[in-house]
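Re: that chain you flagged

S.,

Sorry for the slow reply, it's been a week of failed gels. I finally had a moment to sit down with the sequence you sent. For the record, here it is as I used it:
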Amino acid sequence: MIKSHAKINIFLKIIGTRGSYHEIVSRFVRVDNLYDEIEFLPKPSHARGFELKGGFNCELKKNTIYKAYELLDNKKIDDFFAEYFLSVKKNIPFGGGLGGGSSNAAAFLLYINRTLELGLSIEELCGIGSKIGADVNFFLHECKAANVRGIGEVIEPLDDDVPDIELIFDDTMCDTGLVYSNFTEPGQEDKKSAEKLASLTSKEILKKFNNTALNDLLRSVLICYPSLKAKADEGLFLSGSGSTFFKVKQWA
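Prediction finished late last night. Pasting the structure tokens below so you have them in one place:
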């Protein structure tokens, strides 16, 4: 069984745009106790073709794992999936801002590359990951924490000091595109504050700043999903563009 971990954004600053994409500076931290479970299981019959089973909220061709499979395009993979199918138990909430889909794609790419000895470098894997989703490259680096820049393609792994964090879930499934479309353009101060935050540890960040200062998408999320306002009013921190909040459980 492969663990496909969630992530949280300790901070998320939007510093500009690149075409139709927003450029960010963000601190990503892997969540070790929340993960989807991925298994490669023998097919009952050797029928060629990719099979994916799991409780997904989209059609197969829009699934991040399927996109990764199509982008690999290697005969070894076709032979492998004549014998095995893929089963995913989803534990990471959809639309929660926790990167579940991106994590699934990265876990798939890493496993297939190693198991089938495709010989793809991290740079080549990240080239594939960038075509799937903005968070994929963070998971491909397999680090506990990193500053993430650009449109998710620049990963700076960190030896971070992360406090004990508790996730607070909500049933709301946030639409990332909708949230970003309600974001107003960043100013010059956003770049300055982003670099200041990037220089601090996660523990320092969460001690010194409140939720409105740390996630530029908080206002957009509350405009789109006003039912989440009560959690924001409690001072809880928002992860990404989703509905999952978090707090420091205990300061070491």
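What I noticed first: The longest strand covers residues 21-42.

Talk soon,
D.
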